[in-house]
Amino acid sequence: MARIRFLVVLLALLMSACRSEVASSPPTVLPPTASPSPTPSPPAPFTLLFSSDRDGAGGVYALDAANGEPRLIFTDAAGVWDPTPSPDGRRLILTDYSRENGDLVLMTREGLLISRLTTHPADEYWPAWSPDGRWVAFVSERDDGQDLYLLDVPACLGGACRPQRLTADSPLWRHRYPAWSPDGTLVFAGLGHDGLEELYRLDVATGAMTPLTAWPFKASQPAVASDGTIAAIVWQEAPTYSLALIPPEGGTPRLLFTSAAWLGAPAWTPDGRAVLFTMWNGASHDIYLLPREGGVPQQLTTAWAWDDTPVAVSGGIAIPVERSAEPLPPPTRRVMWGANVADLSNAYLLHDLGFTWVKGFADWNRAEPEQGVFVWRDIENTVQAAERAGLRLLLRVHNTPEWARPAETPPNTPPTDMAHVADFMTTLATRYGVRVAAYEIWNEPNLAFEWGNQWPEPARYADMVRQAQQGLQRAQSDALLVAGAVAVSGDGSDLAVGDLDFLRAFYAAGARGTFDRLSTHPYGFGQPPQLPPEMGLGLRRAEEARALMEAMGDAETPMWLTEMGWVLDAPAWDLGEHEHGVVPRDVQARYWCDAIAFIDRAWPWAEAAFLFNLDFSVVPWYPAGEQMRWYALLNPDRSPRPAYSAIRRCMRE
């Protein structure tokens, strides 16, 4: 997209800067860091409720030991997640996405709808039921962020549902994962403006907040036992995460289990003897059980799926364990697939999808704030994240340092002297060598917005690419140089040069032979992928760009599609110029699968494709109404949207 903006807080949220090797196999589980009790007390029998996309879109399932096969309770084509039982176990609150946004719905344990508790067009999710069964706390984005709200369930059932905002006066940036304590206070994960996530206790009556954890530990996703003990996910340096216990009054976490794989969604068994949680095992997300004393987790679900948000309900004959499932089949597609990723800790999800590439960003403006003085932290984090995930890295180089561009101009203004591009590329490629597989030069240079708010100049862009090539040659780099990155813009406007006109002038300026791959951004603009482009806008506009390449004598150069996607309807927000192309969630899923099959079959010249985007919806630096969040494959509660589940399947067909 043309308006990617990374805020300063990204520094605090990205990976640590220590060097790691390329992963050749799925992340391994590290030994527990706490000494387990010699005789841990097993939990009493229970029935497991959890959410999963094993049958397509997200649904809620029940698993008991009697049959060993999960039973579907409720699902919808748009997905339902976060099953939260009432204290008596007779009712459930779910997060339902059937109206193109997350709403809280009240159902029976058998899946019969009782009432829709929230109807605001913004996303609302992560419900938590109070111990007395009267109140439900949840997270709402209706104020363009993540705030805690409270609703009175009996009042809602009586037709007087008026959610109360609990964090209107909070100094924190984001408020997430509410969990009730036995004393009626709320424990939640709060994200400060420094980017650090810690646990807090909120007095619902007074609004007073008390921190429960502190540096050097960061903590999230609390679950509170009947004795007040808090289970949470904690970490010091990502990507190593621990399941830990924290005293009710807060303090230093006691680590139960540490893993290099993603951990999340802790939940206590009813008797408080064990903790359920979700862990990625290298092929899928599954539910595990760990005794309160620590030890080796027991795997409870085994399907090729995203199983998540477990909860235990009293009853049953034993601990429920799913019978073994079929192994994950390998991807079958010819085209190399990747994705644009915002939070690098989510890069492992691309393995889930069957992708082998990730697209990251090298901000020259931040990397070389003074000529010859380099700050590599951001780029190093990106490179390390790709290595840890075992993915090949396409690094987009963009933004000019202040010293290299005209005064009083924005960072995406091209440099005054293009030779500086060669110098930076030499330094960059020398430093990273084979750790970066490809570099893409600039972003959508046919848009005035991306060319320093001035009219785009194809000839100057050709010079920029030529200088980048010289820089890579001086570094003796084998990395591919990707040029173009044009926005599909039809015949152009007063703010954009038409993409084909730009490429034609780019070639006319002598660009042929100065790059290894030509890229374009053929977004769907609300149309099915097989349809010819309307007014030059659509996925198949790439065919016209390919015809132009061949007419220019460049038929031997493969094409890369480095951004593409379909935007979802966002009922609460105005998506501006993206509004005319919105599609429902199930349609987005279908279009993605159709596009993957079509590109693989019909475009032999297409070598690689990168979807936009995986996870811009879950990072805190984008407000709820940001257009880029609505292209993402994840919901803001981090559950997979139907497109995610569909792509994982159709990449293997």
Automatic annotation (TrEMBL):
<dbReference type="GO" id="GO:0000272">
    <property type="term" value="P:polysaccharide catabolic process"/>
</dbReference>
<keyword id="KW-0732">Signal</keyword>
<keyword id="KW-0326">Glycosidase</keyword>
<dbReference type="InterPro" id="IPR001547">
    <property type="entry name" value="Glyco_hydro_5"/>
</dbReference>
<feature type="region of interest" description="Disordered">
    <location>
        <begin position="25"/>
        <end position="46"/>
    </location>
</feature>
<dbReference type="InterPro" id="IPR017853">
    <property type="entry name" value="GH"/>
</dbReference>
<dbReference type="InterPro" id="IPR011659">
    <property type="entry name" value="WD40"/>
</dbReference>
<protein>
    <recommendedName>
        <fullName>Glycoside hydrolase family 5 domain-containing protein</fullName>
    </recommendedName>
</protein>
<dbReference type="InterPro" id="IPR051923">
    <property type="entry name" value="Glycosyl_Hydrolase_39"/>
</dbReference>
<feature type="compositionally biased region" description="Pro residues">
    <location>
        <begin position="28"/>
        <end position="45"/>
    </location>
</feature>
<keyword id="KW-0378">Hydrolase</keyword>
<feature type="signal peptide">
    <location>
        <begin position="1"/>
        <end position="23"/>
    </location>
</feature>
<dbReference type="InterPro" id="IPR011042">
    <property type="entry name" value="6-blade_b-propeller_TolB-like"/>
</dbReference>
<dbReference type="Pfam" id="PF07676">
    <property type="entry name" value="PD40"/>
</dbReference>
<feature type="domain" description="Glycoside hydrolase family 5">
    <location>
        <begin position="337"/>
        <end position="485"/>
    </location>
</feature>
<dbReference type="Pfam" id="PF00150">
    <property type="entry name" value="Cellulase"/>
</dbReference>
<dbReference type="GO" id="GO:0004553">
    <property type="term" value="F:hydrolase activity, hydrolyzing O-glycosyl compounds"/>
</dbReference>
